[in-house]
Structure prediction request, 162 residues.
Amino acid sequence: MVQGPAQAEDKPVYRCPGNLYTDALTAKEAAAKGCKTLDGAPITVIQSVIPKGAARSTASSGSSAGGEKVSSDDQKARDADRRKILEAELRKEEEALAALQKEYNNGQPDRKGDERNFQKYQDRVNEMKAAITRKEADVAALKREVGNLGSAGGAPAGKPAQ
Prediction:
């Protein structure tokens, strides 16, 4: 078995257009096809082969999650839990945003005792402004997520209940 790699090292390996590596060509054939001889480190080529049964099982397992299905009652309970969690998170983020905006005071927050240097104060104001921007983005994302739950859930969001 050791002879296989030793024989491969004796033959020149060519890199041909299209990222094709081969040692099955003669020097004339390689030159005609525009292939170049590779010198230096040996090349290891690993071919991946998908077993015939694996291709079908992976395609079906993505949609059915291994054949296990969740009952509609369980799914509704999960959706309700998700909505509660998202709404609680939204309330928490909105409260944090309100607190940041109150402290920011429209770009004129109160100076702290250690901010006698105006640049220190200005740096804190800029950090507060960036934090408010991030919180606003978080709140908007949570609102979108809650809105998506409403439209993806049981009844359509735009239609009134009868």
In short: The longest helix spans residues 118-152. The CA atoms of residues 83 and 149 lie 7 Å apart.
